Amino acid sequence: MARQTVFSGIQPTGNIHIGNYLGALRNWVALQAEYDCIYCVVDLHAITVPQDPATFPADRHDAAKVLLAMGVDPTRSLLYYQSRVPQHAELSWILSTIASTGQLSRMTQFKDKADKAGSNLGLYAYPVLMAADILLFRADAVPVGEDQKQHLELTRDLAERFNARFGPEFPLPEPIIPKTGARIMSLQDPANKMSKSDPDPESRILILDDAATIQRRVKRAVTDSGGEVRYDWAAKPGISNLMEMYGLFTGASMDQIEADFGGGGYGRFKGAVAEAIIAGLAPMQQAYRALDDAEVDRLLEEGAAVARERAEPLQQAVRRRVGLAV
Ligand code: AMP
Ligand code: TRP
Question: pLDDT tens digits, residue range 179-222?
Fold first, then answer.
């Protein structure tokens, strides 16, 4: 049987953080062992909020480097910049003609971002482009964090609607969302997710942060009153968040962490959390420093060339279905 196809994307807005890693990117790496994987640096999505044209190329390049450093392996998986494969935008347009404006208006990410940044048509159409990314390659599975669940539902709705109207073309993709780590929270406010766009840099830990920064950010992380290390999201969201991070970086279960740190006070536990994160990120940081920039550019261009070739016959089938090609 042919291997199933996995597709996922990340926006190249600098700042890749441990929430991205624990929620999604570590799955990207793991899934390569079994699946045909396609990973995309979604630059067209990123420009739905203002980017500086002078620094955007460097941000995009850097995001690609972080993915390579984490273990996205271009000899096994496709890795490229979305804008270099024009079929994404073409399919997005076609899908937009069957997307319901009512449903798009209900997307929570759109509502959040439109509140903060003001709205534009691209921001509104963002989930349709995401659906096009996934459906272009007929992906079966999509590793993402919890916040993308609603977009995956929209993707499935669009696939179903297209299939019903034009004939069976798209499989319905399944999200792959981890049981723990799918929603890593801000270090400064455990009611909100850790986010690239949070104005407070102390709210997140970046993949490339140095040891002193990580120690400081964990130490200053907002925790709950009382000193007991207990996994309880309702009563102790700050500590539960740190426990998930610690567990994911060390392999320890929540029970184990409670047994080891329960009564020892927050200070000792926070020290251990910082050490675990520093140790977990060290190999990625080393791999990042070893990458050659020209080679990274070459790999991404090569990925895009392969992706264009692979996308074209698939997109031609879509054109035929809707009557744009015979
Ligand atoms: P983005 O930063 O929006 O480009 O997201 C890239 C991937 O990381 C997506 O699959 C998100 O669902 C995931 N992600 C983003 N923030 C978090 C978070 N705080 N916790 C877990 N996963 C996240
Ligand atoms: N919207 C996703 C995010 O913000 C990024 C993304 C774009 C994506 N296209 C995708 C994720 C396709 C999975 C599949 O995180």
Answer: 999 999 999 999 999 999 899 999 999 999 999 999 999 999 99
Q: How many CA atoms lie within 13 A of 319 on its CB side?
A: 11
43 lines ligand 2 (CB under 6 A): no
Q: Which of 104, 160, 149, 152 is nearest to 131 (CA)?
A: 152
Specify whether 113 is catalytic. Answer: yes
Share of the chain above pLDDT 90, in %: 93
What are the pLDDT digits (tens) for 41-72?
999 999 999 999 999 999 999 999 999 999 99
Residue nearest to atom 22 of ligand 1 (CA): 23
CA–CA separation, 4 and 90 (whole Å): 24
The helix or strand, by DSSP H or E, that contains position 99, with its residue range, turns out to be none
Residue nearest to atom 10 of ligand 1 (CA): 144
Nearest-angstrom CA–CA distance, 191 and 198? 13
Looking at 65, 193, 236, 270, which residue is catalytic? 193
Task: Report residue 124 as tokens.
Answer: 């509104």
Is the CB of 38 within 6 Å of ligand 2? no
Our separate counts of H helices and E strands in the chain read 14, 5
Closest CA to 181 of 7, 27, 9: 27
Question: For residues 25 and 281, what is the distance between their CA atoms, to the nearest angstrom?
Answer: 13
Q: Which two tokens stand for residue 282?
A: 């060290």
Pocket test for ligand 2, best of 148, 156, 170 (most atoms within 8 A of CB): 148
Catalytic: which of 196, 219, 236, 270?
196
**Sheet of strand 141-143, all strands in order from the earlier edge strand to the far edge:** 78-81, 36-41, 5-10, 141-143, 174-176
| Torsion on CA atoms 300, 301, 304, 310, rounded to nearest 10 | -120
